[in-house]
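Supplementary Methods, section 5.1.

A reviewer requested that the exact input to the structure prediction be made available. We therefore reproduce it here, unchanged from the version used in the analyses.
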Amino acid sequence: MRVLGINAVFHDPSAALVVDGRIVAAAEEERFSRRKHGKRPVPFAAWELPEQAAAWCLQQAGLSITDIDAVAYSYDPARADDDGPATDPVWEHLRTHFAQRAPYFLRSVFPDFDVSAFQHVRHHVAHAASAGLAAPFGDCAVLVTDGRGESTSALAGEYRDGKLDVLSEVALPHSLGLFYEDATEHLGFTRSSDEYKVMALASYGSPRFAPELRLRVQYLADGTFQTEHVDFGHFLPRRARGDEFTAKHADFAASVQLVTEEVLLRMCKWLHHRTGARNLAMAGGVALNCVANTRVLDESPFDNIWVQPAAGDAGTALGAALAVAAEGGDAIEPMRTAALGRGFTDAEIEAVLQRAKIRYERPDDLAHAVAECLADNAIVGWFQGQAEFGPRALGQRSLLAHPGYSDNLERLNDVKGREQFRPIAPMVLADRASRIFSRGPLPSPYMLFVHDVDPDWRHRIPAVTHVDGTARIQTVSAAEHPVLARTLEQFEALTGLPTVVNTSFNTAGRPIVDSPRDALECFGASPIDVLAIGPFLVRRP
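The structure derived from this sequence is encoded token-by-token as follows.
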């Protein structure tokens, strides 16, 4: 089957294409529109169809919309409760109506589209499929936790022979994801966007509010939980944007993080007891919490955990396509890489450089040239291969820097316009990782777990060692990232360090760069020293 998946419900509109059970392409609309999370000032704009992403997926496969057997949409309006306890009385009916009319909206973009090929897939089933069907180990338990779907906020189940057995669900208004989103907003951040900032801030605090929060967020014996309304003002006043952070803010973040971890861990223990599975696949926005993921790996009975790299709502486009393909009888191939987005030829990149009238060079050995720049403490914009699908920069669209200088943390946060409490992450050669990092899984190619930094290495790589002695690493293999791996090898030869700083190639509030033009715009507007784009090197005068 040829299945086009679409997400256009809450945020992160995206498209994905699955052909005969193989993932061919996947991209978020924000990479084309340059609107982060697909958001505009008005709420309903988040429901926009991923027109450009869908058209690109088809183009990537050399298909037209008439070649598609099914279009899978990751929300089922028949399952929505427009008058439920967690719904917005102003917008919920419009959301359902949009989902019902989505096939006709799609036909306005692709006039030849046959609306009879359109299928709605339950939101959490799409999340589950994005993890359970794409995971590298076949049959497995699956856990989905996020803010909300049509009328639920979590799903636990098991995949056997490509079929999902749902074992438990959590009905709205109870939601672990919405609890964390509310806390994010109370701390002065943007909900459904900045939850990772709460996770970072938590490392600076003590969970002194956890006992009270546990009274309102409670695990139940059947693998579910309940969340009562929490008056966060009881703990501390709501922080306004621009206000300074205090120890109390960090303590509040630490308390929210701990309670979230505890509920997830108990859910996983119950799921293992029900299934006896050795392997667990996870998706949903809460699965992007890499600190919680590591605790689940450490303390749950599961031997292996795989998290969908696009665990948020963008991944439901892929999951919806996989679910429909599996239902149609296709054997699903595991997801081998997150590099599923746009790529550009050397000629296309050079044409953009020439149009920009910018000086550039083509070194005989790009890896060595970049390693020398990094060893000289330059910040390097790295633009190579196909863009990543999901929120993490994984060596395709990254900013690289020297990890051995502690002030590079502040320097990069200034470049990106970020809060100074936020950590930056390392990428490391896969065969060197165990020398430096422990506790988390190895290899760890998707930056979805935290690892302990060996005490003997913390003073050697201070820029990427968080205040709690951990790092969210990406392991790099020569098989998937040949040029990047050579760069790391050359950097190690020059400095003795087999790791460099890796953070996303963007500035605050902007999507990660996707095209050569995006890369040049970010390079020109930010104090980035060098741009390595395809085989070319651009140096700031």
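The chain has three domains: 2-128+315-327, 135-307, 346-539. These observations are discussed further in the main text.
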